Task: structure prediction
Amino acid sequence: MPGEKQFLSLEEIEQATQFLQSRTSIQPRVGMILGSGLGGLADSVTEGIKIPAADVPGWPVSTIEGHSGQLVLGELEGQSVFVLQGRSHYYEGYSMSRIGLSVRVMQSMGVEILIVTNAAGAVNPDFEPGELMLITDHINYMGMAGASPLRGPNLASFGPRFPDMSQAYDRELMAAARKVANKEKIGLYEGVYICLGGPNFETPADLRFLRAVGADAVGMSTVAEVIVARHGGTRVLGVSGISNKANLDGETITTHEEVLEAGKKIVPKLTTLIGGLLRWL
Ligand code: HPA
Result:
């Protein structure tokens, strides 16, 4: 964004954190980031407060339909939660560093577990729209080209300069998610998520490439947030809502409307899965 500082500073993180702490005394344990069309999950949060993202100093406000841009702090299934109803994306013009602000503020407020969700296209031809995919790993495709949220001075009070990513997605949380899905009879694919910059959807050649390098689902978010979370020692569970078949054959048109429409089918399943998980925690 014009005039935006390139890297997040501790002062900016503190400022946003203090603003929220001046509005609520809730000390969230679980953070949640809700992807395109999936914000409905936050409607079940009780005894809380809703804060427009635009009120928080420095917050990267989402400009995209399907992202209502609210921060919801309250109780869900017996856990104190900090829910981001809609997220911001790199393609909106924010720096990678600023995309990580929400996670830094969550960490500063005491969040130990982050549940990230997104809408994603199926690169794996066996995956059907409307279903969920447990993210078992990701490919940091943008990061490989240098676009990392950790680029710039290391915030050593959060974590090390060279954080490990061998278990970006927490094995115990994944095992719990599988159990809940099984018990609630919710289908749960498993696979590797890859983040591209967007905002355009992929060409068939792009998708053949993504499949060849081992991706199962493609989207435009999540990876930066997970990297910031892991840098700060936050445990992560990731779930993609498969919103569309990827255009591998060149005949399948993908639209944002389709992504939001699929969200309606995905939200009830996601609500059940995350509800069960929160009760287990
Ligand atoms: N490609 C990239 N991002 C997406 C898609 C897709 O097909 N669907 C939802 N987000």
Notes: The longest strand covers residues 235-245. The longest helix spans residues 256-280. The beta strands are 30-34, 46-52, 70-76, 79-85, 113-122, 132-139, 188-195, 217-219, 235-245.
